[in-house]
């Protein structure tokens, strides 16, 4: 952050940032597919089976706590949900 004309300016890779775009719902970039793949890979490594596509679709829009509760219902109460999310 530097001051320029009395305003704070964020510098990224040596250049000023004038704006940012946040794509929260996948409108511009298909991030859901990548997220599903990383969660499936992490769940395979940690519990020996991939989270199903159906489960992951049900999780869209849920809080992490609610998604964890759903995972426990589907994959058992001992599913290491937080570790899977962290690893993914």
TrEMBL record:
It comes from the Bacteria. SUPFAM superfamilies: HAD-like (SSF56784). InterPro entries: HAD-like_sf (IPR036412), HAD_2 (IPR041492), HAD_sf (IPR023214), PGP-like_dom2 (IPR023198). Signal peptide: none annotated. This is Uncharacterized protein. It comes from Acinetobacter pittii (Acinetobacter genomosp. 3). The lineage of its organism: Bacteria, Pseudomonadati, Pseudomonadota, Gammaproteobacteria, Moraxellales.
